[in-house]
Amino acid sequence: MHEHVCLYAGSFDPITLGHMDMIERARAIFDRVIVAVSKNPDKRSAFSLEERMQMIRIATQHMTGIEVVACEGLTVEFAVAHGAHVMLRGLRAVSDFEGERSLAQINRAICSDVETLFLIGKPEHSHISSSGVREMASYGCSLEGFVPEEIENMIHQHYGCRERNRRGEKEDGRK
Predict the structure, then answer these.
(1) Boundaries of every domain in the chain
(2) 43, 44, 166, 175: which is the annotated catalytic residue?
C-alpha cells in the first residue's frame, strides 16, 4: 500500500504551538509528516539549525510518524526527493493567503506531482509568531500558551534570562 507523506517546511525559529497544531493535524491525515527545517544562509536565525531540530524533536516526541530533517534548496524538489507528494502550509490570517498562493503556483510549475495543502490555523494560535516568541523570551516573559511546554526552558536559557511569573515578576520578586 502507498504511504501518504506530507512535507511541512519552515524555519521554526523556534517552533510554536501554531506549528504544533499544523503537525498534529497533518499527522491525523498522513501516514508520515516530514518536518523540514530550513537551512537558509540568507536568513539569520536566532537558534542554530541543530537547536531548532532538537526543539522540534522534543516537542513531537509523543507522536509517531514524524521525521525531522534539515532542508536546503528548493522545498518542492526536497519534497520529491523525500517521497512527499503534499507540502503543507499553515495560514494564520487572510493576509497570509496571497503570498502562499503565489508560492504554491510556482512550486506547481516546477513540479506538478506535488500538491500544496493549506490548513487554517486555530483562532487561538493566530496571534502567535516565532518572532513574537523570540522578543518575549528576550525579556524573560512567560511563553506559556505560545510554545510547547517541553521547550520553554531551552528558549529562556538561549536568551540567558529567567522566566517571569504570572504577576510579571522575576523569580526574586523584582519587576
Answers:
(1) 5-126
(2) 43
Q: What is the CATH number of domain 5-126?
A: 3.40.50.620
- Mean pLDDT, range 56-60, rounded to an integer: 98
Q: Which tens digits make up the pLDDT trace of 83-103?
A: 999 999 999 888 889 899 999
Distance CA 67, CA 75 (A): 16
Whether 92 sits among the annotated catalytic residues: the reply is yes
The one catalytic residue in 32, 125, 130, 164 is 130
- Pairing of the two strands 115-120 and 5-10: unpaired
Q: pLDDT above 70 covers what percent of the chain?
A: 91
Q: What is the pTM of this model?
A: 0.89
At 145, the pLDDT band (50, 70, 90 cuts) reads very high
Catalytic site residue 57? no
| Residue 44 known to be catalytic | no
Can 85 be counted among the known catalytic residues? no
Q: Which of 39, 57, 85, 92 is catalytic?
A: 92
